[in-house]
Specification:
- By secondary structure, this protein is an alpha+beta fold.
- It has one domain.
- The chain has a two-stranded antiparallel ribbon.
- About 0% of the residues are buried.
Length: about 90
């Protein structure tokens, strides 16, 4: 028996209340119910506003890349490749 840092209940796919998994459309396997761990980490991330991948704060300067004339990045690329007619 292997021991892991996190534990949960292991279920055969037939017991999962999702037809895609229960009918093994994605293949054989097991499902793990993380139970208490998911709840604790989910609560902590939301409650303390912890930064996780995809929740980073976006800087104002990164939202819109403006060139010297105030043009956006896409327009600068079009001009760099010879304009809209090329």
């Amino acid at each position: 028996m292997r021991r892991f840092a996190l534990s949960g209940q292991v279920w055969p796919l037939e017991r999962i209340p999702d037809p895609v998994f229960a009918q093994k459309m994605v293949g054989d396997g097991l499902a793990i119910d993380p139970g208490l761990y998911y709840g604790i980490f989910s609560f902590a991330i939301r409650r303390f506003n912890l930064l996780t991948p995809g929740r980073e704060v976006e800087a104002e300067t990164q939202k819109v890349a403006l060139g010297p004339a105030g043009d956006n990045c896409a327009l600068q690329l079009v001009r760099a490749f010879g304009g809209p007619t090329s």
